[in-house]
Amino acid sequence: MSTDVGTGKTAPAPPGGRAPAATPLTRVLVDGVRRNMRQYGMLFALGLIVLLFQVWTGGDLLLPRNVSNLVLQNSYILILAIGMMIVIVSGHIDLSVGSLMALVGGVGAVLMVEHEVPWPVAALLTLLLGAAAGALQGFFVAYVGIPSFIVTLAGMLLFRGLTEIFLKGQTLGPFPAGLQKVANGFLPEAGPRTNYHNLTLLLGLGLIVYVVLQEVRNRRRQREFTLETLPAGLFALKVTALVAAVLVTTLLLASYKGAPVVLLVLAALLVGFGYVMRNAVIGRHVYAIGGNLPAAKLSGVKDRKVTFAVFLNMGMLAALAGLVFAARFNAASPKAGVNFELEAIAAAFIGGASMSGGVGTVLGAIVGGLVLGVLNNGMNLVGVGTDWQQVIKGLVLLAAVGFDVWNKRRAGA
């Protein structure tokens, strides 16, 4: 028996004679993890992969020089992954991005090397070329109604052939030093002489403040709209983990040559496209047409214009990735970008995109690309052959998609 403090009445005891126990904090945290497993599962997986290879390589994975190389080696894949994630969220696919990268690199090399066009002008022209190629494919997908798989497969063959024509089957270089600095350079030294790169430390500190404020702001907005939020303990753990990851990365980069220039490009793309997909009208429309096209049409979404814009954007990002790739290796090759479309698609799916569309984030694309990058880098450091590397990456992709299917079924149940 128990007494109700408010009424003074005696309530019957539960079966067994024990009062119901309060929900433990651990159970609340576990429930929060289960509800947010889809969103944060790959972040945990990335951390575990980094920890595994850090131990396996005897600490070589997180050496400052290797961390800088990891950023430089995967920059163009991460750029592609951002655009590919948006394409997949809209319910489509793009198989032509690797070939378009090669075409852009080839055209840029012809302009800069053979015709001595200033590299900023040539870069602008090649970005416009990429946008035009993406717009052409978007027209056939959105307005003609041909499936994106067929259109971009044709584009893959078309762009690869045009690359051979422009380069005449040969490798062309070198590129101007200014463009090379974008792909391979680092931020300049500034401030007093210390053991760390001062400008990188300042940028890292600013990023930490931005991350904390953004997480607190998002949580406050979710509560204002009565949306489900993480438990306080799990939220604090999440913010602490993010701050620790940014801090460690900043110190590692600052102890070598500082932050690579291309990392700033990636950060700008991440923040810009992340904001567009979360807050802008067109971002909401992309999710709408990917999640439920008939309902989106009935709601007044102009699906054709949105699809056209998605492919135009993908073409421009592929052109940017092509310039970064060609400048990094200081030459344009007809064989550049082979299978890069598969790497970008894998990064998007590993990062949480759904094959049926309507699900995925820009940050998830970056995380998926980093998972593949760390796997490649770590397996190279421990001497795993390229044959087994392909096997392992295939299994990782299969596991990521299988996790997505399982998570959907669990949510439905």
Major sheet description? 2 strands, antiparallel
Indicate the proportion of strand residues. under 5%
For the biggest β-sheet, the strand order reads 1-2
Give helix and strand order, one letter per element, not per position: EEHHHHHHHHHHHHHHHH
Helix segment tally: 16
Q: What is the CA–CA distance across the termini?
A: 38 Å
- What is the averaged pLDDT score? 87
Structural class: mainly alpha
Q: Let me know the number of strands.
A: 2
List unreliable stretches of 5+ residues. Answer: 1-11, 16-22
Shape: globular
**Radius of gyration, CA atoms, in whole angstroms:** 24 Å
- Helical fraction: over 70%
Describe, in plain words, how this protein is organized in 3D.
There is one protein chain. The chain is mainly α and 413 residues long. It is 73% helix and 1% strand. It contains 16 helices and two strands. The chain has helices spanning 25-35, 37-56, 64-89, 97-114, 119-144, 148-167, 177-184, 198-224, 232-254, 261-279, 281-291, 293-298, 303-329, 340-350, 362-381, 386-412, and strands at residues 2-3, 10-11. It has a two-stranded antiparallel ribbon with strand order 1-2. β1 and β2 (10-11) form a beta hairpin. It is globular. The chain starts with a strand and ends with a helix.
